[in-house]
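Slide 14.
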Amino acid sequence: MSLESKLMPDLKAAMKAKDQAALRGIRAVKAEILKFKTSGTGEELTDDAEIKILQRLIKSRQDSLSIFEEQGREDLAVVEREEIAIISKYLPEQLSPEELKTKIQEIITQTGASSMKDMGKVMGMASKAMAGKADGKSISTLVKQLLS
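Slide 15: predicted structure.
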């Protein structure tokens, strides 16, 4: 079931419930999908492309959230947190820190990586293997920990 077909019933339900946070989050996802489709690149909207769109939306909101928290703007931070929660529902289930560490250790043994010089090789494989299931920052942090 594609992301678009999941969004429409959720959008209708949010409209009926007058849930402004859900409306903002779902409309943001729909807008990004529309932008992708009309970009002129001719690419298909695959599951991987959908995951990248969702991750990009969440990352931009997390960046905004950290800025708002630094500046003490709790009113704006609440809006970002709500949208992150709504958009996150459409991502695949995230890996727990233990599962993430186990998978990265498996990749390190597969590649034979032993030092920080091999980080690029490990990151490439880990990013592909865990696309949508973990964010790049947490993958990168764990790879650095395990290789150093």
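Speaker note: The domain at 3-88 is CATH 1.10.1510.10 (Hypothetical Protein Yqey; Chain: A; domain1).
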